[in-house]
Amino acid sequence: MSVPATPPTSATSSAAAQARAVQSRDTTPQDLTAATLARIEAARDLNAVLSVNPHAAAQAAQVQARLDAGEPLPLAGVPVIVKDNINVTGTATTSGSRILRGYVSPYDATAAARLVQAGAVIVAKANMDEFAMGSSTENSAYGPTLNPHDPARVPGGSSGGSAVAVAAGLSAVSLGSDTGGSVRQPAAFTGVYGLKPTYGRVSRSGLIAYASSLDQIGPFARSAEDLALVMNVIAGHDPLDATSLHAPPAFTAGTPDDLRGLRVGVITESLAGNTPGVEATLNATLDALRGAGATVAEVSLPELRYAIAAYYLIAMPEASSNLARFDGMVYGQRAPGSDVTEAMTLTREQGFGPEVQRRILIGTYALSSGYYDAYYSKAMKVRRLIADRFTQAFGQFDVLVTPTSPFPAFRRGEKTSDPLAMYAADVDTVAVNLAGLPALSVPAGFETVDGTPLPVGIQFIAPALHDERLVQVAGALEGIGLAQPQVAPGY
Ligand code: GLN
To answer: What are the residue boundaries of the Amidase domain, all occurrences included (predicted)?
Structure first.
């Protein structure tokens, strides 16, 4: 399972270091791409990658040519792995679903296009829960992704492949998408950073939609500097996304000085039900923040107890609408049928996995006349109450803190037969999406379970459009030795 040791400019170093090495001609985009492909091959048993970009080598050569022509490229030659629900020209794009097997994207998502424009090479597509529905990457039609810290455990989800790509050092940075926690929770389970930006900060154009009012693309990284580097490239207004905001990115990694006077609110509702290791990591984080000059106080957001119910009653109806387009007529697989109705029915029956079918059914039900008011419309009211409560809390605090998850990575199969237990795993993350806020999972410690140290993540939440503050805090926490992003032992 272990991957051979690699030279300093391979995927185990930071994206910033890779770009500097390329810019100073100490390595080439072609060599970095080849090293990344070799690591992907060596780590195949993790099942983090669904396909490699057949155009990666050509893209690397193009980057070299642009460098030789004197173009300044902030991500010069940096290999990036992106979640398989993000369209990349000429790559297989399945969204983890059988229904899109064989689909090759004809265009780039804006986030992917911006990476390439900045000199990155998109080397591969990462495994994920089918259509981003799940919390463990076990709902992928292409088999589960394993956690490099303990292969018997899940890496979290739905962006499990992207998290593992960074945690196992296949690439320094990757992209995922976060609808209810899908960047932050896998980041927590694998010991890396995962940032969910403010809704509208990163374009959703070319992201295969799950629940459009909640979806955001976000980066995984092993340093605050790399988070800043990637966000400065992918964030910013995009005319192709009607919900995209005019807020030019200005990300920098902070220093411990940034913690002085920072007003930190710990959300009371997140303090119950945590494992001892999660509780200890949260307390150690709060102590470290106090020690660095921050003020820490508790704040209660009582409406958070309805967050899971409201989230699933909004996400599933949106999914039922968004997934109507997958009927075998335009994209991907088509089952043979004697007429169009039969062909569509069989395509959807055979193409969608059980969790996706469950959500389409529940979502359609919750939107149907007679039930709309009882479910969807009520959930939308709760959504507003939660958003208002956050706004109120940010009158007193600069950032809010919770564990990213009440427990570290669970065992594969542990929750697959109990959908409600799987949904409940998102208790600390979904409210942030309902309110459209930015939040970052910081790898802040470990909990040893059955003799294996498992990463624990702490979530920092900022007011809308203050994503920059989170990356600043991340850099500050690295400065005081608290944030410990690293490649999993053995990789
Ligand atoms: N686990 C949540 C869900 O299944 C969140 C998924 C996500 O953020 N894409 O809906």
So the answer is: 31-470
